[in-house]
Design goal:
Elements: E1 2-3, E2 15-18, E3 26-32, E4 36-43, E5 45-50, E6 53-58, E7 61-65, E8 71-75, E9 80-86, H1 112-128, H2 133-152, H3 159-180, H4 188-195, H5 199-209, H6 214-224
Parallel strand pairs: 1-3
Antiparallel strand pairs: 2-9, 3-8, 4-7, 4-9, 5-6, 5-8
Length: 226
């Protein structure tokens, strides 16, 4: 389980790329990030676990993942999947109520085909780099944002989701600290002292919001960098 840092493509306010599990036989463990993320499958299929719920994606379908929404990915076979990651701050004028947060639906919409078309055109433009492609790609991106805000944004956000979002924001600071200091002695008690929590509270925080325990998370980070 980890918080993933998103770095946009040079010259653009988003990150657009082909999914790293394109060759199949690939598993991406539980993670989350503040950015909004879209996975669009053009060939093959993927399986997602979003907040413990299993979701299947086939050719011509996409999934829209919210900020700080814990998810994992199973890629059993070769596929062509385009991923778009959008910084949450781009939506700050459209937050719901007094929350520094917004939520997009996972449900299908009439605009799904248009979203797929825009993602393909944007990706092709970035790859082909024809003269003036930056403007065309940006145009497609802004059209996509318009569709997301007007047809996919939920008008009401359950209080428990707002609470989870805030807790994962705090947890992101902690997991970043762990990844920067994983070679050092990092007991739960030491980490709790650094961030001003009691060990029992920090332990419950990992279990409830990151869906894992502290020891397992620390071991996974150390194995990743071994």
């Amino acid at each position: 389980m980890e918080h993933e840092l998103i770095i946009p493509n040079e010259g653009f306010p988003f990150k657009l790329f082909q999914f790293e599990g394109k060759d199949g036989n690939y598993v991406r463990g539980k993670h989350w990030h503040r950015s909004i993320e879209i996975f669009a499958v053009f060939e093959g299929r993927l399986t997602f676990y979003v907040n413990e719920e299993k979701r299947f994606l086939q050719r011509g379908e996409f999934i829209l993942l919210n900020s700080n929404e814990v998810h994992s990915i199973l890629s059993p076979e070769p596929n062509k999947t385009i991923v778009l990651q959008i910084p949450l701050k781009l939506f700050e004028n459209y937050y719901i109520g007094g929350n520094q947060f917004l939520l997009f639906t996972h449900q299908k919409r009439e605009q799904d085909a248009e979203i797929m078309k825009l993602l393909k055109e944007m990706y092709d433009g970035v790859c082909q780099k024809e003269i003036g492609y930056e403007w065309n790609v940006q145009s497609g991106f802004f059209k996509l944002l318009y569709l997301l805000i007007n047809f996919y944004r939920r008008q009401e956000i359950p209080k428990d989701l707002v609470r989870n979002h805030k807790k994962l924001d705090k947890l992101s600071m902690i997991t970043s600290y762990i990844r920067d200091n994983y070679t050092k002695e990092l007991s739960l008690e030491m980490l709790a002292e650094v961030f001003g929590y009691s060990p029992s509270y920090l332990s419950r925080m990992f279990q409830k919001y990151a869906k894992t325990n502290y020891k397992t998370y620390l071991q996974s980070v150390r194995l990743e960098y071994a």
